[in-house]
Specification:
This protein is of the alpha/beta class. The protein is built from 6 helices and 7 strands, in the order βαβββαββαβααα. Its EC number is 5.6.2.4.
Length: 178
């Protein structure tokens, strides 16, 4: 049996975390456990501190039984788990900075990773999501370039040189058009 890659799913609210957690566990059925351990956990501000500590300590292990964590921003900045392979946003993130910090948790060990944003219509409402995020998810140009352009500092070299054919879904599609 092969091991599923570590996946981190970000949601904007605790009810959405719970909904996605239940959906995934229902889909997995009996396969949601590895022995006595859950493969999928949820992490948010209402989770007891001792449970949060367990989830973080276990998920950091290279041989972690936990393969997927569904979380709000409570998962916290500064958490370094190098072998997370997938970061998913269920709904658009609140800001470009939030997006960049959260996708930055993916593939910190230098191996390949994937970041996916499922930005459904309600998650793009102007009262809950910044216009730069809306522009990014609706863009037909390079997602990485559009994201990094928000952090450009006048007089500093452009980030265009770090974009390659595999950096995002748009660029990946472009290589098939050639």
């Amino acid at each position: 049996m092969s091991v599923s890659p570590k996946t981190l799913i970000f949601c904007r609210s605790i009810p959405t975390v719970a909904e996605i957690f239940l959906l995934i566990n229902d889909e997995l059925g009996e396969k949601r456990f590895c022995g006595d351990y859950r493969l999928v956990e949820m992490f948010h501000s209402a989770i007891p501190e001792d449970r949060k500590k367990y989830i973080l300590e276990e998920f950091k292990k290279t041989d972690s039984k936990i393969r997927c964590v569904i979380a709000t921003v409570a998962f916290g900045m500064g958490i370094d788990i190098p072998d997370i392979r997938n970061v998913v946003h269920w709904g658009a993130p609140k800001s470009i900075l939030s997006y960049w910090q959260e996708v930055g948790r993916c593939a910190r060990d230098g191996k390949d990773g994937v970041a996916v944003c499922y930005a459904y219509a309600r998650s793009l409402h102007k009262n809950i999501t910044s216009s730069d995020v809306v522009d990014m998810v609706k863009s037909t140009s390079c997602v990485r370039r559009a994201t990094l352009a928000n952090f450009a500092i006048p007089g500093v070299t452009s980030v265009n040189h770090i974009v390659n054919s595999r950096c995002c879904c748009i660029c990946d599609m472009d290589i098939w058009k050639r």
